TrEMBL record:
PROSITE patterns: PPASE_MYOTUBULARIN (PS51339)
Nuclease keyword on record: no
Subcellular location(s) per record: Cytoplasm, Myofibril, Sarcomere; Sarcoplasmic reticulum
Name by which UniProt lists this protein: Myotubularin-related protein 12
PANTHER family the record matches: MYOTUBULARIN-RELATED (PTHR10807), MYOTUBULARIN-RELATED PROTEIN 12 (PTHR10807:SF37)
Gene Ontology cellular-component terms listed: membrane; sarcomere; sarcoplasmic reticulum
Sequence similarity: Belongs to the protein-tyrosine phosphatase family. Non-receptor class myotubularin subfamily.
Gene that this polypeptide is encoded by: MTMR12
Length: 741
């Protein structure tokens, strides 16, 4: 897996030790540990003498404690010694290392005589000796109940299955209990600075910022949600659009403004009109569409283009199916599973089609960006629901507007296009566990697409991949209202009060996910901000200073040309003609796959990538197959064998920060010669944490401390004699250590 190993890996042997002691004969000193309950959180059931297993090297190890289930989470309580106080730990104030929110549980398995069986509500006739919980954030928990009392086993297993698998009413979510019980406050800072787009003034300011107020206007046609329950109370439409046109089909078929480009073109979205069989209604639709089209399409002064997303992007069932196959690759129950899956891991990854869907979304965003940037064409994204429309519209704005690459700008974008745009978070995440809802990880797809941009252009973003990872985890935290409603109307009208029938009951005060102080301490929040990001004003000053110093250096350079350094290949030593030929064929095989950029935007794509990248201008992602990668920090963070201790991108950032500190130190020394008493700059918070952390790895700050690993060794001295060169090129997954040949 990931080139770490291959075939020939011996399975760890099963433990040969058998305990003949009865549970009551086992003497275990348990330290009393109390569960920390949030406001509104209730303890439902618990079991003692539960062994949390950590399977390593084929033998079962673990720690005893209590397993409890509340109306918010499943928690394992033990006296396991905490980490060293001097070591920085990436801790969440709401969810601990051994806590699982009920909404984060994906699947539960019971183990009967070493055989696994999926546990579902109403289908448990015999209670298992061990339960395995697979989480949506890719964690895997093993709880052995062999030494737990039978009555407690029944209670805890039944309780966990019922509260994680059974359908639930919306008003029974922990979100409402927490909102009614938690202290009511308005977060000062993050929540106020993030534009929520819940007022008419927010939309007007956004129009002014993008210079779109010349052609478009903010309206309050849906202020009381009488027009449409899916639309926000305030939105933006073309200036010439009449009020009766907006309300004729309840907002459907109306172009709604998203963003304006610097050249005057605009990005819009439109809900498709319902399909009708009646001829008179079809004619009415046609007349209405022609009238609406004239508001944004007036050639030669203004041209528009409609993008039918259903014709070029996968459907929601296809996205759900692809992600279902994709997530199976990261639920590693033990190290043996990790190495056994290595042989066909890349084949399974390709067959999941998840990375291909990401590539298709990025490619569609590039096409839209070309129409806006080079052809000054208004682009209307058309879809029956607010799903892929949110993905493409948001990606285009991230790529074209540097404001949305800042932390507050990105949060405002999600508020505008997703929360107020009417994306059905409740149904797509299936928080109510309803079988009739169309579940699909649309928002996770968007975050994965953004991560591709972040890892390709890290300096262009004010936030880090850690920010994206904790944002994806927040999807399953029912203390924030951001991701637990289907629309603004769903939140504002149906659940304005704790009890809808009681007009005297107080309004609930829901919390926003953008108040990061609820989850993290200030020093932890420092990891959400990119220390290498530079504001545009500072960047412009740096460019001017660099150009001036470069000109001065050129004046002092010798006229004779320096001798060119000898070229070095990819390897330190010449690998030889066989390896060179093998690599060229292998790379050609990868590049000849179906990831070609379409001819329609090939020239735009190629010409942009030939230019110098302006990190505060337009950004186009690389969409060739090898450059669409796995979001390793999110998907692999709980697998110790997949981590590179002291390596990865975080090591590069650490070196860059060290260089910056050295430069600042030299600058201060130069200033001290001119003026004494210059203040000494403090070490940055991020740099201080990197220096002290024992979790410094490629998946920092989520890396696990324990890592007892011996990588399988593959004999490479005879592999040439076993297979022909052409066969090796065709092989999909086997890892070959070319450096040892």
């Amino acid at each position: 897996m990931l080139g770490l190993g291959a075939a020939g890996v011996a399975k760890p042997t099963k433990p040969s030790f058998v305990s003949y002691l009865a549970p009551e004969e086992i003497q275990i000193k348990e330290k009393e540990t109390n569960i920390h309950l949030l406001p509104g959180e209730l303890l439902l059931c618990e079991a003692s003498m539960v062994l949390k297993c950590t399977q390593d090297e084929g033998s079962q190890r673990g720690v005893y404690g209590r397993l409890v289930c509340t109306n918010f989470k499943i928690s394992f309580l033990c006296d396991e010694s905490a980490t060293d106080d001097n070591e920085f730990d990436f801790k969440n104030k709401i969810i601990g290392e051994n806590d699982i929110t009920l909404h984060c549980v994906d699947q539960i398995y019971g183990v009967y005589d070493e055989k696994r069986k999926c546990l579902l509500t109403g289908h448990v006739k015999k209670y298992p000796e061990k339960i395995i919980i697979l989480c949506k954030d890719f964690r895997v928990f093993h709880f052995c109940l062999r030494y737990t009392k039978e009555e407690e086993v029944k209670r805890i297993v039944s309780g966990i299955i019922h509260h994680t698998q059974s359908p639930i009413l919306h008003k029974r979510l922990f979100l409402f209990s927490y909102a009614a019980s938690a202290p009511h406050y308005i977060a000062i800072g993050t929540k106020k600075q993030t534009v929520m787009f819940d007022t008419l003034e927010d939309w007007r300011l956004e129009l002014e910022r993008t210079k779109g107020n010349i052609k478009y206007k903010a309206v309050s046609s849906n202020a009381s949600y009488g027009l449409c329950e899916k639309l926000p109370p305030f939105f933006v439409v073309p200036m010439s659009l009449l009020e009766e046109d907006i309300s004729e089909f309840q907002g459907k078929g109306v172009p709604i403004w998203c963003w304006s480009c610097h050249n005057g073109s605009a990005l819009l979205k439109m809900a498709a009109l319902p399909k009708e069989q009646d001829e008179s209604m079809l004619q009415r639709h046609k007349t209405f569409s022609e009238r609406i089209d004239k508001t944004v399409h007036r050639p030669p002064y203004e041209v528009s283009r409609i993008e039918e997303l259903a014709n070029s992007l996968p459907s929601l069932p296809e996205i759900q199916m692809a992600y279902g196959r994709f997530k199976q690759l990261f639920w590693m129950e033990n190290r043996a599973d990790f190495w056994d899956s290595d042989m066909k891991w890349f084949t399974l990854l390709e067959n999941s089609n998840w990375l291909e869907i990401i590539r298709q979304c990025l490619m569609k965003a590039i096409e839209v960006a070309e129409y806006l940037e080079t052809e000054s064409t208004n682009v209307i994204l058309k879809e029956s629901a607010s799903d892929l429309c949110c993905v493409i519209a948001s990606l285009v704005q991230v790529m074209m507007d540097p404001y949305y690459r800042t932390k507050l700008g990105f949060q405002s974008l999600i508020q505008k296009e997703w929360v107020m745009g009417g994306h059905a978070f409740l149904d797509r995440c299936n928080h109510l566990r309803q079988t009739d809802k169309e579940e699909a990880p649309v928002f996770l797809l968007f975050l994965d697409c953004v991560w591709q941009l972040v890892q390709q252009y890290p300096v262009a973003f004010q936030f880090t991949e850690t920010y994206l990872t904790v944002l994806s985890d927040s999807l399953y935290l029912p203390i924030f209202s951001t991701f637990f409603f289907n629309s603004p109307c769903h939140k504002d009208i149906q659940y304005m009060c704790g009890d809808n029938t009681d007009k005297q009951s107080p309004h609930l005060s829901f919390h926003s996910v953008w108040d990061w102080s609820v989850q993290f301490e200030p020093k932890v929040q420092a990891l959400l901000k990119n220390p290498l990001y530079v504001d545009k004003s500072k960047q412009d000053k740096t460019i001017k200073r660099t150009a001036r110093s470069k000109h001065q250096r050129q004046l002092s350079l010798p006229l004779t040309q320096a001798k060119a350094s000898p070229k070095k290949g990819f390897f330190r030593d010449d690998p030889g003609p066989f390896i060179k030929n093998f690599l060229s064929k292998r790379i050609s095989k990868l590049m000849s796959s179906s990831d070609e950029v379409p001819n329609s935007c090939r020239e735009f794509y190629d010409s942009w990538h030939c230019k110098h990248v302006d990190f505060h201008g337009l950004l186009l992602p690389h969409i060739e197959g090898p450059l669409i990668r796995i979001w390793a920090q999110r998907c692999l963070r709980w697998i110790p064998d997949a981590q590179i201790l002291g390596g990865g991108s975080v090591a590069m950032v650490s070196r860059v920060l060290e260089t910056i500190e050295e430069i600042e130190s030299l600058r201060r020394k130069l200033e001290e010669k001119q003026a004494t008493g210059s203040p000494v700059a403090k070490e940055t918070e991020v740099m201080a944490m990197l220096r002290k952390s024992a979790r410094f790895s490629s998946l920092y700050p989520f890396a696990l401390l324990h890592r007892i690993s011996v990588k399988p060794v593959i004999p490479t001295s005879t592999w040439r004699g076993l297979e022909e060169e052409e066969d090796l090129v065709k092989r999909e997954d086997e890892f070959i250590d070319l450096g040892n040949i």
